[in-house]
Amino acid sequence: xxxxxxxxxxxxxxxxxxxxxxxxxxxxxxxxxxxxxxxxxxxxxxxxxxxxxxxxxxxxxxxxxxxxxxxxxxxxxxxxxxxxxxxxxxxxxxxxxxxxxxxxxxxxxxxxxxxxxxxxxxxxxxxxxxxxxxxxxxxxxxxxxxxxxxxxxxxxxxxxxxxxxxxxxxxxxxxxxxxxxxxxxxxxxxxxxxxxxxxxxxxxxxxxxxxxxxxxxxxxxxxxxxxxxxxxxxxxxxxxxxxxxxxxxxxxxxxxxxxxxxxxxxxxxxxxxxxxxxxxxxxxxxxxxxxxxxxxxxxxxxxxxxxxxxxxxxxxxxxxxxxxxxxxxxxxxxxx
Amino acid sequence: xxxxxxxxxxxxxxxxxxxxxxxxxxxxxxxxxxxxxxxxxxxxxxxxxxxxxxxxxxxxxxxxxxxxxxxxxxxxxxxxxxxxxxxxxxxxxxxxxxxxxxxxxxxxxxxxxxxxxxxxxxxxxxxxxxxxxxxxxxxxxxxxxxxxxxxxxxxxxxxxxxxxxxxxxxxxxxxxxxxxxxxxxxxxxxxxxxxxxxxxxxxxxxxxxxxxxxxxxxxxxxxxxxxxxxxxxxxxxxxxxxxxxxxxxxxxxxxxxxxxxxxxxxxxxxxxxxxxxxxxxxxxxxxxxxxxxxxxxxxxxxxxxxxxxxxxxxxxxxxxxxxxxxxxxxxxxxxx
Lengths: 336, 336
Hints:
The structure is a homodimer of 336-residue chains.
Chain A: H1 4-11, H2 15-23, H3 30-43, H4 49-56, E1 61-66, H5 75-90, E2 94-99, H6 103-111, E3 117-120, H7 128-135, E4 140-143, E5 154-157, H8 159-172, E6 178-183, H9 194-209, E7 216-219, H10 223-236, E8 242-246, H11 248-260, E9 270-276, H12 278-283, E10 289-292, H13 295-311, E11 319-322, E12 325-327
Parallel strand pairs in A: 1-2, 1-3, 3-4, 4-5, 5-11, 6-7, 6-8, 8-9, 9-10
Antiparallel strand pairs in A: 10-12
Helix pairs in contact in A: 1-2, 1-3, 5-13, 8-9, 10-11
Domain HTH lacI-type (chains A, B): 2-56
Organism (chains A, B): Isoptericola dokdonensis DS-3
Protein name (chains A, B): Catabolite control protein A
């Protein structure tokens, strides 16, 4: 194995100078740096990531923290994870996955000192992990957000804006009775789960503002639960002519269930999905129009924000809300 | 911050002894080790993962390598990733995600020396990454496998066995014309993609052995492509009474498409999915019977195999084929 001493001998400089170049710990004159880098190239010297990390106190590793057990991650979560890994790669970072279910476990991970920073997924309104990361002075960002709008950096989908876009579309078509179907992860750990809470709040407020009578329906996060919700809705609420659906997993079953219950889409009921991906709108069967909010951009922007924070710890927190875009593929129409 | 010297002073031992305990680099008498560990606990000393990694030449990090661009990962891939992360956690390892599209990029990652070992996802028949890892002498395992059955360690689903199980079930019901629908990722990079190749080969061989005329249908990996395949199949091959489907993404659209084309499931056509998850069988809508092969076990077993290899580099390669289990929820029946 080629050592730093070999590089120093070849370049005719001291070992300390090579260390400065390799670890980026001190400025080295360009001509000297060039000699060192040429010697490294000639000898095939390879920087050791761990040695550099220890020397610079920067591992260039960030952690993506998600719940291991409580929640079956959906396709949006997958696109967030893969986009985050790609964005980190482009910035010279590695992403480690931390499947962590409680604060004590997260603290144990943090104590190892492996990562430069942390991104939290599946954030709740009063997320206890935020307090821990703040106390431990670990740079971090949220994918999603707490109910504190002035708090730490976050990148989130603009659920309230998507509700407004969806209601505008359906009321412009003439609908006066628009229900909201929420895919609910269930269980006490998810009582303050951001997407569900924010979508419901915005829907209730916007319905009141427009003089519409609200109807919130809950379903489990899978297709068969979606079908059951459709069966119940068709039986109990024949006056509903439009439904907005927040849950990509329940969506197809919900539409199949409406049709099976004799409610044609969109002739009898218009269906509009909230916060699905453009890929789903382009390929799902049955086809469902949506207010699209790409998960991949969420992952990319969150990584960029964290990398910038690591470069400048004094930067103010960054709060990004990604808007949704209405994409219509025929599941909405004027009511009969 | 508490240093190793503080621990040494408290325990009344030398700094070297503390280092042996912390880094596991040399055996220390149990009584002495107990004193050192008590001192670490009293003082709140925390091991630094990076320092320990550098000292022991073990980072306790393994990489999960998957293609970043060519392929939209499905729900099975997600369950593999999350299960691998959880299994690694339990063994004291971290998992980094490497979204890597070519061998040169993988080599660049490896050169950093960050990881102790590598797991490859989405393996092709003659995967060039295998040659690179072998040459670099990096411990690795495959999730999936190449066409070399005596090669490096792998954990794969037993696609041939699943085909046999599926054909047994359908021919026992009396079907004599059973088609195979393959969700094809498409593109030259996937020409030797293991699941597709192995399933097709087994289907053709098993059909011949049973005197059945085979029919292979290809679809893109999404619901709408599944629907198109169903429409074409219903129009061109009215004699087909059974279909096995290898693609979780195309499946729901395929069944919806059959029904829309006037072919009732299972009355006119029996549909059996191959290699989906038990969760999908339990929750999918429309409900489809399947030969189930859980992705989470694939991720768990692959991590365990790699960790064991790291502990004993001389161990022979481990070749694991996970069998599928027939789970029936009503989408198959005797032909009319």
